[in-house]
Design goal:
The chain is of the alpha/beta class. The protein is built from 13 helices and 18 strands. Helix 11 packs across helix 13.
Length: 442
Amino acid sequence: MKNDSPLSRKDFLKQGALGLAGLGTAPLLGQLPAARPNPMENNNLQLLKNVRLETGFSFDGNEVAATETGLFCIAVEHGKIKAILPNDPQAKAFDAKGMLMLPAFKDMHIHLDKTFYGGPWKIIKRRAGGVKSMIALEQEILPEMLKTSTERAEKLIELLQSKGSSFARSHVNIEPTSKLDSLKNLQRALEHKKAGFDAELVAFPQHGLYYTDSVPFMKEAASMDIDFIGGLDPYSIDGSIEKPIDFTVQLALDHQKGIDIHLHESGQSGVDTIEYLIKKTMENPSLKGKTFLSHCFALAALPATTLAPLAEKLAEAQIGIISTIPMAGRIMPIPTLYKYGVKVATGNDSIIDPWSIYGTGSVLEKACLMAQLYGFGNEFMLSRSLALATGNILPLDDQGKQQWPKPADVANFVFVEASCSAETVARVPEIKHLIHRGNLVY
């Protein structure tokens, strides 16, 4: 399992290159300052004490038996971790009270722009006829939803924060009904929440590129403050694999954006779409590491003899898979994807909107579900499963060497009442605090 961080929306999210040896064995990088700072100023944390960090694994033979931890002080400056210091229980500091500090979570597939969350309980009856019937339904209800979409997006962001996420990749409707209004409304919500939340935005032609004439709106959105060019089931919605993919790839290249395409098609057209996107990515190496397939249900139905070589191709093209880990008959082959080095992420997708009524806002629950689905029942595999919630950031590497936190890392973390990552995944404890760029936001 690779521990690469996902693409960041802003340059400040890029982590520094300063190193730190294993906390349990190597000398620490500093001593507490003689004049201790005010631990909080306008919710900006400067010093934290009694912080529990993972320091290594203990082994029974070759098997990880337990995760070792210790208590430390964390110094924060300008939104980044300045130093990891010996614990001083008497320090004038924010008291973590022995709680475990873990990387903040990242929801890598959600639709913040269209939700009923924050309003009364509401179920929209799904229409028979598949995605095209749902497109017709959206065309009817979106004008009314847009009237409150900024406020609803803010409420949904607050839900994600309460579940430990301070970052999301949000798909945003770009189509003739919403035009660019859905994008503009969400950008207002993100501006209001910028002190405690960051996002990547995907310009998403939810109603098809050509099925409805979304092309001019997509071109305009690509020149705005978005990060990815999206797409939707090119064959079943637009009647062609090549034409929509070619447009998406060229638009991404022209504007130096990434690509994130919804692919629900589970038959041969789904496999053919995967193969064609791999081909286009290999032809345009600048898209490697910046191209993703969301859902990608076609992978769930493939036999091992077909899946393995396709996973190898995805890894070579550095195309990531964003899986919502569905339970309705489709179990994604995440262990196989990990085996071949494919980057895998997850998100809550829809939370009470026209498409779904399910979702708690917790990507930690998704990590727990993954561990249950694939039988990750030991200390080591449970600890590795945390990567699904954190965007592939883990406190310990596979050998048990401490790799997070380090000086110069962005100060984005959560506190939970748990002894280690493995227990956190297995038990899904309540998030006690969320810190974003050094600010206490929950």
